[in-house]
Specification:
The structure holds two protein chains of two kinds. Chain A is α/β, with parallel strands linked by helices. In chain A, about 35% of the residues lie in helices and about 10% in strands. The mean pLDDT of chain B is about 90. Classes of the chains: A alpha/beta, B alpha/beta. At the A-B interface, helix 3 and helix 4 of A face strand 12 and helix 7 of B.
Chain lengths: ~280, ~325
């Protein structure tokens, strides 16, 4: 079964194709949604991506980014940015997604076919050990669900689990700052009772949602900037460093500070959210 | 020379296991322990012991065999007409209990292999893509079958502690498929229309029946202690499975899934148990590193290959 063909754009296959891997990533599906993502990237959000050349060309890498914008579009835009800069050498990054998304119909399948996996350290470690690039958002639901008034202020980076993963897998950490995602759905408040009813981590109220119903789900066309920072090589550390809580925490805090600084720098360079 | 007791030898897997073991000249004796007569060619190396696992005289029936290995395959997954859910619990848990109590009286015993199930991990939306053996009971045990499997594993663990000389292996099988098998998933794959969950397309992982038997034989030799996942290495989407089998899927909205299947069962369609229903919604994958490195066993067939074989068998049966 296939969706109707849009002019210029290919059909999106509803069933998994033969190139699907054991994680459920389906390159045919990823390619079929790419025109949509390219449209969002170029026309809707006018994304500028810098620093893609800093990503290691080979081997695993743990890309750590800030997380924002109620509905997490950031992973797909980061992947699109890398794809457009790298061309044929592009290696599709995998990304960890909030567990709750995998209980949703359609969304769970689409996310998985695009390279998303449930946010479990076991998944991340196995993917890194297979040599994949893995994108993580250590702020998690706290980051995406924060109110508009706290935009661009990074939340706590969990318990620093991502540093442990990088140490265990021997993968470099690439900090990444995303600017623009905070404005796509400015969250003014929440309806906790609706969230409890649906089991969602939060139910957002934005200027357009739920006021305009499904139209409220259309993200605002803010201007985005994505910057990949220099990789942090951890291979010099002893193998038992992953057990050292103090060191893990310090490294995690260091990564957070670097991302925060890059976020501020890119905010200044962007000169206005909707310009 | 090995002397091996097999429980559930009249089951499909048990009887194939018994045949494969008898084909090995190093096996001196196979004792088929089952209340039903096993469908096996008679021979002087095969004895049938007609005893119930729950019977108090079981130890007396087994002690004269001087067995050094025991394979427990008599675990039943799904209720059937004439085999209620309560009987199932009785055979699975109390049967294992009785068998292990009898096994304590066997001084020569060195190896115990128990058929477990990867259902112990459950089928969950937020599960790791590949469960390793230490992740059992990470999620709530939702179904009767899961609780049975978990309880019998605990019994095996307790036995292993009491009898350290016996290497106890529990094989946690992913769903076992094969042309001659009659399991909930095989029934589903044989039926013309397969109900699926609207908006879900889980990753599934299976193991072929022949590989399952080969894994049990490998476990008899390897003497691994503790649980081992047994499955083909790859996982594939349910939609690919159904497309290969040429099945029409019937996507049902989550709220309608249970009621419609209940109504269908009354009309004679195969009844779906809760484990299968959850498996169809969220799937499950297991990590096979321990199987490959400690059990030193690699299945011949991948998940894709197993599906290919099953598809051919179904086409043949239809032709």
């Amino acid at each position: 079964m296939r969706l109707p063909r849009l002019p210029g754009w290919g059909p999106i296959p509803l069933a998994a194709g033969p190139r699907e891997d054991r994680w459920g990533y389906d390159p045919d599906f990823a390619e079929s949604v790419q025109p949509w993502l390219d449209f969002m990237y170029r026309r809707w959000w006018r994304v500028t991506t810098t620093g893609v050349q800093r990503l290691p060309a080979e081997g695993p890498a743990l890309i750590v980014a800030n997380h924002a914008g109620v509905v997490p579009w950031d992973a797909s835009m980061m992947a699109t940015g890398i794809r457009r800069a790298e061309g044929p050498a592009y290696r599709h990054p995998r990304f960890l997604v909030l567990d709750w998304a995998f209980s949703l119909p359609w969304a769970s399948v689409g996310i998985r076919r695009f390279g998303g996996v449930p946010a479990s350290p076991h998944n991340a470690l196995a993917l890194l050990q297979e040599g994949h690039r893995v994108m993580v958002f250590p702020e998690g639901a706290k980051g995406v669900g924060k109110p508009y008034s706290r935009r661009y202020q990074l939340e706590r980076f969990g318990r620093g689990g991502f540093v442990e993963l990088a140490l265990r897998a021997g993968a470099p950490i690439v900090p990444c700052a995303v600017v623009g995602s905070e404005e796509i759905y400015p969250k003014l408040g929440e309806l906790p009772f609706v969230a409890r009813l649906t089991g969602a981590p939060y139910f957002p109220v934005t200027p357009t949602f739920p006021l305009l119903g499904p139209f409220g789900a259309i993200p605002l066309p803010s201007r985005w900037r994505i910057e990949f920072d220099d990789p942090i090589d951890l291979t010099g550390l002893p193998p038992d460093a992953a057990e050292d809580r103090a060191q893990v925490f310090e490294l995690a805090e260091d990564v957070r500070r670097r991302i925060q600084a890059k976020v501020y720098a890119n905010l200044v360079e962007r000169e206005g959210a909707f310009r | 020379m090995r002397r091996i007791i097999i429980t559930g030898a009249a089951n499909r897997l048990g009887s194939v296991l018994a045949q494969d073991l008898l084909a090995d000249p190093a096996v001196e004796l196979v004792a088929a322990l089952d209340t039903r007569a096993p469908d096996l060619p008679a021979g002087d190396r095969l004895v049938h012991i007609d005893a119930d696992l729950r019977s108090p005289d079981l130890a007396r029936a087994l002690i004269g065999l001087r067995a050094d290995a025991l394979v427990h395959t008599d675990v039943l997954q799904f209720p059937e007409p004439g085999r209620s859910a309560r009987t199932l619990h009785d055979t699975n848990v109390v049967g294992t209990l009785g068998l292990l109590a009898a096994a304590e009286a066997l001084p020569e015993l060195r190896t115990l292999v128990v058929r477990g199930s990867a259902a112990i991990y459950g089928s969950e939306p937020n599960a790791p893509a590949f469960f390793t053996e230490d992740m059992a009971r990470r999620f709530v045990l939702r179904t009767r079958w899961q609780r049975d499997v978990s309880e019998s594993e605990k019994l095996v663990e307790a036995f292993a502690r009491r009898r350290p000389a016996v290497a106890c292996t529990t094989l946690r099988f992913q769903p076992i498929l094969g042309r001659t098998l009659d399991t909930p998933i095989m029934r589903l794959l044989r039926s013309p229309i397969v109900p699926t969950w609207l908006g879900f397309d889980p990753m599934v992982q299976v193991v072929h029946g022949d590989d399952a038997v080969a894994a049990m034989i490998a476990a008899l030799d390897a003497g691994v202690r503790g649980p081992v996942n047994v499955a083909a290495r790859d996982t594939i989407s349910l939609s690919r499975v159904l497309r290969r089998l040429g099945k029409t899927s019937l996507p049902l909205a989550p709220g309608l899934f249970g009621p419609l299947l209940g109504a269908g069962a009354r009309l004679g369609l195969p009844r779906m148990d809760e484990d299968t229903a959850r498996f169809l919604r969220y799937g499950r994958g297991v990590d096979t590193t321990r199987m490959e490195q400690e059990l030193r066993f690699a299945p011949v067939l991948s998940t894709l290959g197993t599906i290919e074989l099953v598809a051919m068998a179904i086409e043949e049966a239809a032709a």
